[in-house]
Amino acid sequence: MVSVAEHAVMQLLTLVRNYIPAYQQVVDGRWDIADIAARSHDIEDKTVGIIGMGQIGQRIALRLKGFDVRMLYNTRHRRSSTEEAVFGARFKHLDDLVAQSDAIVLSCPLTSETKGMFGEERLRSMRPGAWLVNIARGQIVDTDALVRVLEDGHLGGYAGDVWYPQPAPPTTRGAACRGTR
Mind telling me which InterPro entries this protein's record contains (predicted)? Predict the structure, then answer.
């Protein structure tokens, strides 16, 4: 559980700091710091939504506290006010969390309720330029819709260690990478 929580935070920081495009520039023998910095952000003062506040979601929240982010969460069973204070997170209904978050981390199980939860409509209801991290299950996010919202620039990027189908087809792998801003 600890490694998954740390992995989620690493993926979030990789997106927000624009690490992959910066790395690719170096690999390509270039270094345009202005281009990289223009799309690199601080995570401080951002709003991060965590969907799924089980053991992994709780560990993600605890690790993010040190970054001075505002944290929102949604889960099947709301945590007590004491737990919310410990995690530094406030409960929000799903649509409110999605609309208010600069970044969303999916850490919920795959159920009949979560399968396809992030289809095109919900992805487009995210803030323009927002980032999505999926450490849960690939089927929670509609792959084709994700590619569309990344390619048209609505989202700032996607990071995940899950995809559906897995492994990701070559035609969708590149699209998700291009969407990372």
Answer: D-isomer_2-hydroxyacid_DH, D-isomer_DH_CS, D-isomer_DH_NAD-bd, NAD(P)-bd_dom_sf
What does each C-alpha distance from 134 to 53, 79, 125 come to in angstroms? 14, 22, 17
Residue 141: give the domain boundaries. Answer: 2-179
- Kindly report, residue by residue over 19-65, the tens digit of the pLDDT: 999 999 999 999 898 988 888 999 999 999 999 999 999 999 999 99
Distance between CA atoms of residues 141 and 104, nearest Å: 12
CATH number at residue 37: 3.40.50.720
What is the torsion angle, in degrees rounded to the nearest 10, for the CA atoms of residue 13, residue 52, residue 145 and residue 139?
110
**What is the token pair recorded at 9?**
């935070």
**What is the pTM (predicted TM-score) of this model?**
0.89
